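job 3f2a | input accepted
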Amino acid sequence: MEIIGKLVNITDEKIMPARIIIDKDRIQAIVPLSEEEASAFPLPYILPGFVDAHVHIESSLLIPSEFARLAVVHGTVATVSDPHEIANVCGLPGVEFMIRNGQSVPFYFNFGAPSCVPATRFETAGASLDAAAVEQLLQSVEIKYLSEMMDFPGVLAKAPEVMAKIAAAQRLGKPVDGHAPGLRGDQARDYIAAGISTDHECFTAEEALDKLRYGMKILIREGSAARNFDALIPLLNDHPDQMMFCSDDKHPDSLVAGHINQLCARAVAKGINVFKVLKAACINPVLHYGLDHGQLRVGDPADVVLVEDLEHFQVKQTWIKGQLVADNGRSHIVTVHMAGADPINSFRARPRVIADFSYPLDKWGEQENVEQVYVIEALDGQLITNKLVVPVADTLPSNGQLNANPDKDVLKIVVVNRYQHAPVAKSFIRNFGLRRGALASSVAHDSHNIVAVGVDDESICRAINLVIEHKGGLSLVDPERGPGTHAELILPLPVAGLMSLNDGYQVAEHYTALDHKAKAMGSKLGAPFMTLSFMALLVIPHLKLGDLGLFDGDKFALL
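job 3f2a | predicted structure (559 res):
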């Protein structure tokens, strides 16, 4: 078999019309075309496959095989995948499920060993992986690296358990991923010196430059909620060997629209040299993680992508190990949707009642004359939040209770423990913009308890009970016809409360319907459900809500 086109040699920065001869799953030879052959008809450009250098597959709401089915259409042949989400719910069996399912399709899922399960000691998770369990995972050939070390205070304090995990990765010659939002100066230097090699959490160029100076690789992230591309892309000009592209978290509607190919197009449109762009998209992840993907060399696996041009990166064909997996927008990956299977999960929450969500004015015990309350300020396109203090009057106090006030865009946010029956954590949040109803989700990084935002307690209760009834999912309740008459929508996620068993394109349509409905209820956020999923992510500053209460990400302590 052979593939003909303009071969893009990224390392040597050359383009040569060529014939790639493939025998079974390998490139057997690369033969230059004559001038006559090269001019006979328009030739596509031949690239190595795109690599998402850091992604949580679970956030696509799809099992790995379905993620692959959608991603190959956009020329993605590989991911560097952190199974941190399912590990926090199901532990080692969850990681094993991801590996097994990923092996059922032609795609490179390069899984890491989750380093922070639970993510912090200030929340309730479904599992715990100590240093011995992490080392056991790292010894597996399927595990390519130690996943993002979110406990940067533990690294800086040289906590024994944290350092043991890093040391295990170093002994086995596997890279250690980082996660240190906002870390600068001496602290960034010390964090990197401990053996941390990457960071995908930089939200300013100044922060990224600080870390680049100390030798860290920086991942330019553009996901469904966190979008740092515009802030960081100028750095690719001067640091082409130290940067990669990633999505981190990508919802299914976004994956249907495009993937790393979109970032290539945007980077070229900003005037970045195309070879530098393709280094970040195709080559740097392979080199950094020591991956097995083909780089368009003789003897490499035949992992080949054909694009129409080097401006828009519209993918014509994707080949993995000599197998055509996508052709002109149509995926050829065949998946088993496991219909009727008993999915892996951990969900023991019981239905709640409306009274569980009341917020008494005397919440602070004996304290009297409370005049102010904390409010989380969600930021569109960012995982970080602001910590606000607003007058109690903004919460429409009545009958000794604090309430949501949509006129001031102060809504109620709650977190319900999904692993055991426990008191509900409650606070307030701004920038969700809902004028009525509630949203709820069992995708709630990192422990994946149930998080909900809403205007009234009845809608919040209904939305959460829908999630509990289905043992996981995204739900929406809209009292569009007045009190007592609610429209209810649910996208069930029976796999760990994180992923669907259904066809990926159908899941994307279902998610899009939820997204449109949330925006019709008043939300101005680009991705309301994705943003909601990060409001319980304690390891990202500045203020978040976990199942044990409000958490100050700067002090790394419960308020």
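job 3f2a | The longest strand covers residues 14-23.
job 3f2a | closed
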